[in-house]
Amino acid sequence: GKTVFEYHNGADVAVPVDQQGFMYWPGIPGVPDLQNGNLLTQIDYAKDTNRPTGLRKVKSTENSYVDLSSSWANKTKYLWNIYSDIKESSLPGNPNVFLWMYPVPTAWNHLESTVDRIFDENETELLSETKYTFHNAPPDQTKHHQLLSKLVVDSDGTAINSLYSYPADYNPSAMNGTIANLLSTFKMNRIIEERSVDAEINGKTVSGLVSEYNDNGQPVQIFATENTNPVSGVSTNPSNIVPDNTLFKQRALISYDEDNNMSSQRKINDMPVSYLWGYGRSLPIAEVKNAEPNLPAIILTQPFERNTTTTGEIADYEQMGSVFDIE
Predict the structure, then answer these.
(1) Cα separation of 152 and 127, whole Å?
(2) What is the pTM of this model?
(3) Which residue has the higher pLDDT, 98 or 2?
(4) How many Å from the N-terminal Cα to the C-terminal Cα in the chain?
């Protein structure tokens, strides 16, 4: 078989005359198409000796893109020209260096939609279309450029819309002030709430997941919806990451050690699972079930120092085996 790719490849255009208060100056580079390089289509073929071409289409993907929060970054690019100021027709003047500043277009280029097609032996297609939405506002007014929603429509017409929220969608004081810390350290892409709504019945919530983070951007609590039927009236609350305490229930707790390694996790109504780290605390070397988070470390540090080696010598494993009855 073979795979065929097509990419966006638009030509550069000249900087508009008087655009953003600048006159066109000869030699200024053209404005590139901001969508250049984006994958437009991908078609996968399989070998089929019964067809004249010897190939049969089995799958295709079509993508479209959009430029959002477009603007002009003025006075960001420089063009240096060296010229001689002619004062008399027969004598050259003094050489001069001239600095010309010109604008550059900027935008956030996002994937807008994807159409996936799967073909059977008769090239009858099954289609799935996905549409994506993002904030579209001037740069100084945009909260963030993360994915806001993803709408998936299958061949049978079933439509599920997934909604997402991030630290910038909440008040700085939310999550006990952790939101402010995440924003100040530029951890903007942490998904706090992910909620699936049925687009066919007025956007009622089908399922949802909420993650609470620590200052390092690591999840420490997970909340999930507990509902058998779609629920209406659920929306993101900027002051509280859990939009509905009667619908979202705590499902998991996660803790970390001083090196920011996961030390334990526990699903509600389930046994805790703890982890031991070796090789200078860079790799997990053991998983301990049904033990308190600090118990494995206490046991392990009794016979020897767990951080005395970064090489993982066999003696480490022999000693650990004697502690935990590992054969």
Answers:
(1) 11
(2) 0.76
(3) 2
(4) 48
